[in-house]
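Researcher: Good morning. I'm working through a list of sequences from a screen, and I'd like to move beyond sequence-only analysis. For each chain I'm collecting a predicted structure so we can compare shapes side by side. This is the next one on the list. No need for commentary yet; just the structure.
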Amino acid sequence: MPLRIHLYYVYILTNASHKVLYTGIINDLERRCYEYKHKLVKGFTQKYNVNILIYFEIFEDIELAISREKQIKGYSRSKKTALVEQLNKDWDELSYN
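Model: Good morning. Structure tokens for this chain:
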């Protein structure tokens, strides 16, 4: 039986005005983006229409992913913005949903 590698995603979402930055972690980023786009996730992201994926990192180790999510959540807005703009200067949407 082949060894299955689990992947974990730490991601940053925004809304159309780019006023809100939301950081999260998930093991199925495509499904989660679909859920955000279709308002299936109740709470903060639904309330503030946060559904545009602008940044993500991939991890094989869940502990590293959790640690990174906490690190990013502790960043100032300017530091999060700089992180996004390193890889996505124009804040283009990265999801296909």
